[in-house]
Amino acid sequence: MVRAISACLALAIMPACSCNQDDEKPEDNVQVGAVDPGHKVLHRLNRVEYNNTVQDLLGTQTEPANDFPYDNSSHGFDNIAETLTLSPLHVELYERAAEALAIEALAIGMVEPLNLRFEGEGPDVITTTGGVGSDYFNLWSNGDLIASVDLPETGNYRISALVWGDQAGPELVQAAIGHDQYTDQIFDVVADDQNSAEVIELELELTEGIHNIVISFLNDYYDPAVGDDRNLKIDYLAIEGPLDLAAGPNPMREALMVCDPASTGERAWAEEVMSAFLPKAWRRPVTAAEVEGQLSVYDAVTSNGGDFEDGLRLTLQGALLSPDFIFRVEQNDTPDSEAPVLLGDYELASRLSYFLWSSTPDDLLYQAAADGSLHTTEGITEQVTRMLADPKSTALVDNFAGQWLYIRAIDDRNPDVWTFPNFDEDPRAAMKEEMTRFFDSFLTERRDMRELLTASEGEIDARLAAHYGISGVTDWSTVDLTADDRGGLLGMAGIHIINAYPARTSPVLRGKWVLSNLLCDEPPPPPAGVEGLIEDDSTPQTIREQLEQHRQDPMCASCHDAMDPIGLGMEHFDAIGAYRTEDAGFPIDASGTLPTGESFYGTRELSSVIVQDERLSECMAEKLFTYAMGRSPTLDDNASLDGINEHFTANDWAFEDLAIAIAVSQPFRMHRGETP
Description:
Layout: H1 2-6, E1 43-44, H2 47-58, H3 88-106, E2 114-119, E3 125-127, E4 131-132, E5 137-139, E6 143-151, E7 155-166, E8 173-179, E9 182-189, E10 198-206, E11 209-217, E12 221-223, E13 228-241, H4 251-256, H5 261-264, H6 266-282, H7 288-303, H8 308-321, H9 323-326, E14 327-328, E15 341-342, H10 345-356, H11 363-370, H12 377-389, H13 394-404, H14 425-444, H15 451-454, E16 457-460, H16 462-468, E17 477-480, H17 493-498, H18 507-518, H19 543-550, H20 554-568, E18 582-583, E19 586-587, E20 591-593, E21 599-601, H21 602-611, H22 614-629, H23 638-650, H24 655-663, H25 666-669, E22 670-671
Antiparallel strand pairs: 1-14, 2-13, 3-6, 4-5, 5-13, 6-11, 7-10, 7-13, 8-9, 8-11, 12-13, 15-22, 16-17, 18-19, 20-21
Helix pairs in contact: 3-8, 6-7, 6-8, 7-8, 10-11, 12-24, 18-20, 19-20, 22-23, 22-24, 23-24
């Protein structure tokens, strides 16, 4: 049945059916047809969006999408709809994830932890050698006592046994506790009779399901000449846990069970549950026919011997396999027409939530969609302001800034261990945290976005302070960073490690990063056959000197004349962002002159030049627009982008105003079909 449900994913490429929303809405202030909002293909949830969505929808703490294939990136982001393709592997893993989520969500909470005790007179264990005494197990040669248990929850369990031994030979009796095929701990058993029996125990983290818990006798000894015989005696084997299980019901189940089955009956109960769940899962109102369509799974299961729990679990699983859940469906009554139309309120709510939170709308956003307030600029503005103040807006730091500014890439850089023997995971984590905290301040403090480059203060910890040569810092503290030419993004070690080679700096990579990510002026790829820098160990040269030779080739000069001066302005920082004064034994020259004539020395002067460039604000608007829309800008978006940029720069360059300008723009609030 579930495999039949997963086949419906193939329908995702077909036009979605329409769904009646509000018949009456407040008068809108968007001029329909004024711009072409562009055509956007069906948008699959990427890995981050899937994890966030199931956590907010169900309350799970798991991250099932971590097992999905990596999402492709385009235009700098992994939420671009046209690259989020669907493979057979995706379908298989969606099915597996939906099954696990449904089981977890509907599990009946345990009131008390498990407490099993296997005693000598009981029949529930197996001994591989030995037998059962009057009230104990007797292992008279090397072998095992095995109890098979079905653990209801993943967690920490205490395994214990009351043991003693017939001591003989030069060693004490040795026993071990293990599980499945593993020996977890070995014990010397001192006790030599039942009256002095001792408890051996340990705690194990075990997964839900069937496990074999084993007590082993390891060192059998027998001397028939004198009658010495070493044996292990076991009074009982006990399993307790999960030790960290909170007694009480499953809160995920309680949230789903919205009515009392005693008063409605099981079929009606399932209908009530799915009627409440489907609108949240599919992010729009649902019709009675759609609810009944999902309940056909329930009816099939219960009519073939399944009970209420089986039927509801598979129905929930089917809802999570629907294209309406896996894709951000935007319904259009005229999918073959290129005439722009307004998004429905619930579709606009989804655009807002996945833009700002990388997750599904919350109750307040659904309410705004229901009452029509998202149909006005004022209503959208109110929601954007509210959502940016919510802790879930950290998704913009992790996913927008994480990709725009390459914060995520810090984890992937591996500096050369011979060149930088003291580099380890501590400074790497601190570099990433510094950039994360820095960008987050622009969401929470309404800072001028130009301070991304010109800020003179920042937060660092003791490990990063040592890397920067700053004393007196113990924990994360705000400090002055202008010494040694720091301050702003271009003074952060994270920027330099992601734009360097393992053993040396790369002014080319650093210059290209500034042009591509801050000015949206992507240099073309190098011509075929062009050699990189030629390093000659017999004649030491600085990177500046090598690049000057490289630019002698006219094919290289056209691009390098723009990139190299920017990167050379950061040469005071080595490949892991530590300050230095020499390169190859020669003093570093961090001066530069751009093709447009501006001169500078070092990163702070370079940053001051960049913030005067009109391309900076335009690029910030373009990057956030691309991320918000899940598609690249087109020529038809230029007028909208100009308006967004004008609003942004006229309002103190605040991130909130940039986000609002995008959210109320016509491309964001409209869509169109495509002529076949």
